[in-house]
Fold these 3 entries.
Entry 1:
Amino acid sequence: MKLASKLSTAVRSSVDRRHFLSLIGAATAALGLPRRGHAAAHDEWDLIVVGGGNAGLPAALFAAQRGARVLIIEAAGILGGTLHLSSGQMSAAGTQLQKSKGIKDSPQSHYDDVMRISKNTADPDLVHLAVFNAAETFDWLMDRGLDVYPHHPITGTTHEPYSHARYAWGQQQGRSILRILETQLQPEIDSGRVALALSTEVTDLLQDENGTVTGVVSRNLDGEVSRHGGHNVLLTCGGYASNPEMFEELEGAKDYADVSYEYSQGAGITLGLAAGGYVRGGEHHLPLFGGIMMDDNYPSRMIANARHFPPNRPPWEILVDVDGKRFLREDIPSHDAYEHALLDLPEERCWVVFDDAIRKQAPKLVAGGFGGPFDLDEAFDTPFPAFFRADSLAGLAKAARIHPRGLEKTVASYNKGQQSGKDALGRKHMPLPIAKPPYYAIQLQSWLLTTYAGLAVDKQLRVIRADKTPIEGLYAAGELLGTGAFMGRSYCGGMMVTPALTLGRLLGQSMLKFPT
């Protein structure tokens, strides 16, 4: 089967993510795990959790174990949120796993690493709260069967490494975590302490004359509207990665790739703002590098990702911007350098350029596609607009919409440096010149899985107004707080899933107050 046919089939099969989630829901029900639940309108709850994912499930679980009556309202037809799609990577310091392998580590070291990697742009209070309580969360999961890889923990993969090996995840990725949360939650559902309202959206927050949040208004797929009263309302309904309009408004950049969870629509942002809160962190926007898109109708489906981490695959090609100029020493061993360089390019876009000799001799540039195996040779014969081939550099530049003279000058300069061993940008790995036609270019686009802006909260995770006063009765956790809160303008391993789980646990276990 030709590549175009393969990818079209893969994309068609993945477009309807509601169908994908319904299949998971059916399998969940068959296993007897929580899927459906009913909650009476007008009931009073000790805790209403809006969003049943990374942060919401542990909050509900630990609150119920304290005897609280909990209602989980989830827009999808199943629990789990992004755990269905996430790699589930976690980081925690001082864990039993580390101690069993003789690794000496501390939460303070973890905190220092996050602030170092983020260049002190992460929120110090939230990072401190997350990492100083992460080990208990991780140990709790391990004690209940988390199936981490035998060689874990590690210091990192391709982003900036930690100073100690504290990075680990389950062999079933995010579902390793979800399986444990569902299993632990089931007795609370059976007992009636936890009720579920699935396929239901929260459309408004109820507030009294003082602004205190006292409940929610929800609507299900049948159009039925319900009002629920709650002593505490916790927003854990994720980010806005599948809402391109909100993405551009909050981060000042376009959302180019359609790769995120369908229900990441920014509902929590909308609810929090309407209640008087504010949003922060969008200035930390930092794209991922190397996305190859199916078309220019953004956000587009991603068909593959170019390998760009030099320690794993040293570069043979060059990278150029729209002016045909190199903007990065391609063999720099840092994802962070790649991502920050991409951030400064027009439309966060670049091109990887090479010739026929490199195409035939270099290790695979695109090792695999999002829809399965990827054949780069076939890709240049497809109608996908990211792949270009021409018999001259000028012709290649015209096809790829790159400045022709700029590209010709850049290739000539690179070839001169390759021959002399003295590259203008200091690059050392230069196996071949770019001199044998036909010439090739692949358009690479930024992409993101998570979102950087989020609701502002205080140290107690209460949603706050612009004047820093808390909105009583309203809390938030998880990705809704923004990637920027926990990683700043950077990527720190395990600092999305672990803080979400940890802060959810802390809220349910001790931070939320229930009537006696």
Entry 2:
Amino acid sequence: MHILMVAAENDAIAGAKVGGVADVVRDVPQALAKQGHRIDVIIPDYGNYSKQMYSTEIGCFDVPFAGVLESVKLVEVTVALSHRKNNQQQRGEVRQLLMCHPLFSSGGLGRVYLDDPSDRPFSSDATKYALFCAAICEAIHLQFLAQPDVLHLHDWHSALIPVLSQYIERYQSLKNCRNVYTVHNLSMQGTRPFKDFESSLEAWFPALSYDGQVICDPRFPHCFNPMRAAINLCDKIHLVSPSYVAEVLLSSDSERGFFGGEGLEQDLNNAQRQKRLVGILNGCNYHPGRVRQVSFLSFLLQAKIELQQWMAKSLQLKSVHYLASERINTLLQQQQFAGPLVTSVGRLTDQKVMLLRQESGDTTVLGQLLRKLDKVDGFMVLIGSGDKTIELEFMQMMSQRDNFIFLNGYGKQIGEDLYQIGDLFLMPSSYEPCGISQMLALKAGQPCLVNNVGGLKDTIKHLENGFCFSGNSIKQQIRNLTETFEQALCLYIEAPDKWQQLRAQAKSSRFKWQHSIERYITELYQ
């Protein structure tokens, strides 16, 4: 079977990762290739990937876009080609492909997503990914890319492909492929106006004749919703955990802290009735071999190196990096804490940390947790970036609490090290389609404290490999989060044998790709 995967991120290419989708797009093709399938993976070239890696140009061609012809280049990047015969892809192999155009790196070399103002959400990225999707359709039409048996699309960034194949005669042969669409995050739908804006469907494709009832946003009918379009037009819709499927069939209710279909629940219910909706849990790789030995001291030294690299990216020193560096210096000079190390790694969005930002007495929930942690001589390290307001709040908390380091960025090495050295991983997401961080923490033997939603519900079991809380309102969730945190600290301090058993059970938890891939083939591809 020949499968073409289209996504915005791919961790198989250094620098092309922002979130968990990059891990999936890295791992799934390799697992499918081991089953003997022929896999192509394609993302935009956001910078110099094609120059930094060994690359071969497949072709350069013109793409009709926004009333002009845009010259786009298709490139394959790989470690080595010497094992191939006549440069032909072999069965059971993954080809890593890039689409190259100046628009894809308009935000700066290597930058995947752009930060658009709140009154024009997704405007820059939407135009970028509209050209990307059009280029893929054109490449298949011109036979620079072989038409696959399965066209597997990830999130809204690739969702224009089924729209173009449905409404442009030139690309209708793509409907002969089996179109599979994976929703990694339903809250990011890529909605843009139909017309009257530079970043709009009719601006990108002036001659497009479409059915607005199928592809419009249900809450804003004058707008085009790429995610809804793909949900309605594709053969199979894949969500990345079984529990998340059950949640998105219901309407969101932010007042009580429930996040469901985000306006698309009717379309998702239709897909379920048509037996097009499938929930398959993401997996994790478990490579046998020697685990790198890490201590809190070695983590601090590596974090200091990482901070210096972040500082060097700008002429102006960011306060958050300065404060983190000073906190590390203090820790290196004084006796280390004796209590538990609480860790957290992830994007700073309200999806991930809304509960931590809520007011609680004279501080926030995060502040309350740090106070409780201080009573047992514990410490917390949080790594992440994202929403600027959240970054500011966490920086201010670092200035107020001596037992907290906020590292405002992401480094692969310090992220992996933090999984290894932590005692308790904190992931109180308000919703979580699947989640990869909790799987990586478990893999390292770190119990997780999570909200009992989505993929967290499917991977963390209370007092088996971690701690779970829930609640029918935000207020109740906050109370239960705080009480569960206290329960975890109490178990760590008062029952060390039970804690070690919990760690062992966390480490033995397994969510292997092999099982998920078998379901991909039987439930999505066939």
Entry 3:
Amino acid sequence: MPSDSLINITPKQEPLNSFVDRNIVASVDLGSNSFRMVIAQILETRSGLQLKPIDTLREPVKLAAGLDSDKKLDKESFVRGLDAIRRFGERLRSFPPSQVRVVATNTLRVARNAAQFIEQAQLALGFPIEVIAGREEARLIYLGAAHDAPACNDLRLVIDIGGGSTEFIIGRDYDAKMMESLYIGCVSFSKEFFPDGAIDAHFFKQAELAARQEIQVISKEFRKKGWKQVIGSSGTARAIAELIAANGLDGPAHDLAETDLGGSITRDSLIQLKTLLLKSDYIQDCKLSGLKSDRRFVLPGGLAIMIAAFDELKIESMEVVEAALRMGVIYDFLGRTNHQDMRFVTVDQFMQRYGVDLEQANRVEKLVIVFLQQFPISDGIDRKNNTALLGWAAKLHEIGLSISHNGYHKHSAYIVTYSDMPGFSKNDQDRLSVLLLGHTGKLGKLFLSRSFIDWRMLLCLRLAIILCRRRTQQEIPVIQIKETKKGYKLTLANSWIALNPLTEFSLRKESDQWTGIGKELILDYV
């Protein structure tokens, strides 16, 4: 088991010195309909950083279509997805991990065998995969779309219809203000309402009504917030805009260029497109100009959702951009490297919301980082991310006190597990939750669990909390911590221990906890 990282992957890569351009970054979006990859060059301008896409890959894996009645990916979709990822892995083989970010969305959030798929996918790709929550997906979609959308000095609404979910976001400039993710997608709706490609007016209406029912939950608040500009992002919106243009539903028929980020959709053109679609009994027989083979079977579901969104949110027209999640991932990635990491903002907001004792949190954070830095860095370990994660655990370990002192660590872990935390992947939240759950109390509950445990990081946190129990600024002597064959060894001054009997008693109890799970914690007073 890796010592202080959730995922310890050593990609089968070429020597890093063969990768000469450190200004090239890549993102991979494992979506419910398509897997997409973009490789972009970072350009420095007087106004800031800009991304120039230089290579893209898209694989229409239709992962959501492979979910069976038990919410498990069937064998065909499992294999189809892994095959696509292997091809992506070849393209990314020479990239160092610091220049690649991979995210997974709705289908891998809900599939019961997602863990098995991700485990094999990470080995095939050579990079860790982050499963992101719905609202985090919405935030990243908005960030990507906002960089390509026409300028707007007011609020804009962004709608992204994916394979298994649809995201609705209202924001200004590059900041998302209101975000929702609904379980309605072009793949899942096409599979449910148009099985085997059969299309008729009755089932199309049923699909529209089902989508409207879901959108009604958010429509009142969204309309109350208001917007001046509507943007449709990514595959479904782009495909619909292409069909509208190719079939002359908005004027003379024309083709949208592959590199064209434009295109538009009006309510009238949507109704015309629906009318043309319903002239065929099966989508296989549809003669719409510009209908691509990989979009054919997901068009009915996507179009029904788009019409429902227009009707429920009272939209008359929409401008379309190609950039969305995959570009948002890179912009967010760049923000992290330039000290604009959204996760730090989220942690600060949580500390304020739950009334954290700032001085105590800072004392614990300072000490845990001192401890962690004493451990050597193993191959494949992201020490920078782990240091940040441990610091966040120190800052948030007492948020459960806002609920109750008894079992507060359980409340802290629960809050982190089930809250929307912008910037955090599900992996981040899971790791953070385990640290909060285990920062005090018995270790046995964690040792017997199936969760990944960062034992070194957890030890650092538990020791720091013991040593900061007085909750005052105090002189703590130099403390050495290192790993042994059977566990850990803590060395500190005997003279200081003699003056702090409660701390010494607590450390001995802590040593017993580690003995109870088959690890040693040697206390060496010198």
